Amino acid sequence: MFLVGVFVASFCVLVFFRLNLSETSAQAIQQFSQQNRFELATGDTMQLATKLNALMASESIQCVDGTYSDQVFIAAKKGSCFTSATNQRQKVDISTAKNLDIFITYKMPRFLTYSALALIATQILVIFAFFKVYSDKMNLALAGKEQLIAMANQVAHDIRSPLSALNMVSSFLHEVPQEKRQIVQSAIQRINDIANDLLVKSPTALLEQTQIAINTIPAAQIVEAILAEKRIQFQNYPQIKIVSDLSADQAQITADAKNLQRVISNLINNSVEAFENQRGEITVSLRAYKNQIQLSIKDNGRGIPDNILEKLGEQGITHGKANGSGLGLYHAKKTLTEMGGQLNITSKVGAGTLANIVLPRA
Ligand SMILES: Nc1ncnc2c1ncn2[C@@H]1O[C@H](COP(=O)(O)OP(=O)(O)OP(=O)(O)O)[C@@H](O)[C@H]1O
Ligand SMILES: [Mg+2]
């Protein structure tokens, strides 16, 4: 904004200088006509040539040329005689002697010319500075993206080997009750899907065009499955409680179950990360209304300061989390919007946070 201001201001000053030259040269010509009315009327070229020659002594006169019946009677010049950014060629107004033509070229005073040159140089510098700032920003953004891609590939790669070990072990879990075995296997499958997504697409592409597989499913079923998984994930933290109230019964939603579960999982992770000493309560409630369902995830964690709250949902906004990438809520908002829903977050520092998801009913 500052650069644009400098540019516009210097441009205006330049235009002002040029208009000033046109005006002062017009006034000077009028003065010359009045002072030499008799010579101009009689076509006294001898007198006119003497006076015009004398004019050439002035710093502001660049050229003088005159013809009488197409015969040149004066042609004096110090440089270019044409109208330009710093020159103004002016015709002397002679209504009485039609065969007399006199042109005087005025020059912008030297200090104004230098000031104009300095302004042009400033403008060029401003343009360069603008492009430099812009290209630096672009380079930073590109470097950030490349880093993100490299990181995603590394994560996907590193996840895969412990995952294949888990996969193998899960097939021997005969003594584990079937219900729990299914939870473990579905969790492994989800990690597998995420790792595959990371490898197949760049993370940027992953965020920009999350592939959506939309189906009509009971909302409670999607939420229950992910809650079962999260309870297992945090089972070694007895002070973390996940309470659920899924009274939406069989209300169906048209959504991509895998992505919606990823969103819920990220929101629950955020709540857990907001607890002091791994102690706190998360309440997940599902309500069905005429045209939509509302899923809320509420915690009694440390809350979000206002200055962070207003920026949430932008890519890269993270606060108070070591190695936080600030992608969780960005992905959540984007995914829900693509499903025709929305995410609203309200929070109070010291009291807790409420994440509200609204999705259309099928
Ligand atoms: N329930 C919550 N309680 C307190 N702070 C929260 C909560 N949810 C989000 N935040 C704040 O919002 C920030 C952004 O969250 P987001 O999930 O987008 O990124 P992140 O958790 O920092 O990183 P990641 O990409 O690993 O999820 C967090 O760093 C945290 O400061
Ligand atoms: Mg997060």
What is the assigned CATH homologous superfamily of the largest domain? Histidine kinase-like ATPase, C-terminal domain
Topology-level CATH name of the largest domain: Heat Shock Protein 90
The run of helices and strands is HHHEEEEHHHEHEEHEEHHEE
The CATH class name of the largest domain reads Alpha Beta
Average pLDDT score: 84
- How many structural units, i.e. domains? 2
Helix content: 40-55%
Shape descriptor reads rod-shaped
Instruction: Return Rg in Å.
Output: 40 Å
The name of the CATH architecture of the largest domain is 2-Layer Sandwich
Distance between the amino and carboxyl termini: 47 Å
- Give a list of the ligands: adenosine-5'-triphosphate, magnesium ion
Proportion in β-strands: 15-25%
Write down how many β-strands occur, each being a DSSP E stretch of 2 or more residues. 11
Explain the layout of strands and helices:
Elements: H1 2-35, H2 37-42, H3 45-55, E1 61-68, E2 71-77, E3 87-91, E4 100-107, H4 110-170, H5 178-200, H6 203-208, E5 215-218, H7 219-233, E6 240-246, E7 252-255, H8 257-273, E8 280-288, E9 292-299, H9 306-309, H10 328-338, E10 342-348, E11 352-360
Parallel strand pairs: 6-8
Antiparallel strand pairs: 1-2, 1-4, 3-4, 5-7, 8-9, 9-11, 10-11
Helix pairs in contact: 1-4, 4-5, 7-8, 8-10
Bound molecules: adenosine-5'-triphosphate (ATP) and magnesium ion.
Residues 266, 269-270, 328 line the site of magnesium ion (MG).
